[in-house]
Write a structure and sequence with these properties.
Radius of gyration: 20 Å
Number of helices: 8
Shape: elongated
Number of strands: 7
Strand content: 5-15%
Order of helices and strands: HHHEEHEHEHEHEHE
Helix content: 40-55%
Bound molecules: zinc ion
CATH architecture of the largest domain: 3-Layer(aba) Sandwich
Largest sheet: 5 strands, mixed
Distance between the termini: 54 Å
């Protein structure tokens, strides 16, 4: 095994912690970085430190934000009777980009994956229930990827939300290919999936 100077080895190891990056890719990234002019290296390093200190979770919807409450929760024009439940902040961003949904969000923090230790208590399900009990909600849209974990999570949520008779529980229309990612679905397909959402 090749031994690089410790700071380089360190950075390679940090890159390896990111999804989809193995040791070889990490090595390539670090060596590309080393070739950059000092100014670019500094901007890169600054961007990293900035994200560490300034990004927080909105305490209402749990989206990532610079402010608490986030700009969506703070927007008085949004329809507070509708909540769109998503797995991760990037799913929220995908829905928000369609410009079709004007309600509020709830970021669950993942999907149910019992084999990997993601059981209901690891997700923000109690927080969702508390929100539903406290507020006058008319519709909850379950916007999850149409894959096995997404489907299982939607069924679980539907069952625990069913006692709230006044709430309509909907899911995105089946326009999205099975196994696809909300994050990478084009805006037109996602807009149609939202427009044609149906009761689950
Ligand atoms: Zn928020």
């Amino acid at each position: 095994m090749i031994h690089f100077p410790k700071p380089i080895q360190n950075l390679i190891e940090q890159f390896c912690k990111l999804p989809g990056i193995g040791p070889k890719t990490a090595e390539r990234l670090v060596f590309a970085f080393l070739k950059w002019p000092q100014k670019n290296k500094q901007e890169f390093a600054d961007a990293f430190s900035e994200i560490n200190g300034s990004i927080i979770h909105c305490e209402h919807c749990f989206n990532i934000s610079e402010k608490n409450p986030c700009s969506i929760c703070a927007d008085k024009a949004r329809d507070r009777a509708k909540i769109c439940v998503v797995a991760e902040p990037h799913d929220l961003a995908a829905i928000e980009n369609t410009d079709e949904f004007k309600g509020l969000y709830h970021v669950l923090g993942g999907v149910l994956e019992p084999l990997y230790g993601v059981t209901p208590d690891k997700l923000r399900i109690n927080e969702l229930l508390a929100k539903v009990q406290k507020n006058n909600i008319s519709e909850i849209i379950l916007a999850f990827n149409p894959d096995m974990e997404g489907e299982a999570t939607m069924i679980y949520l539907k069952n625990i939300l069913q006692p709230f008779k006044k709430i309509q529980i909907t899911r995105l229309a089946r326009g999205m290919p099975v196994g696809s990612d909300l994050e990478y679905t084009d805006e037109i397909t996602l807009t149609n999936a939202l427009k044609n959402r149906r009761e689950i």
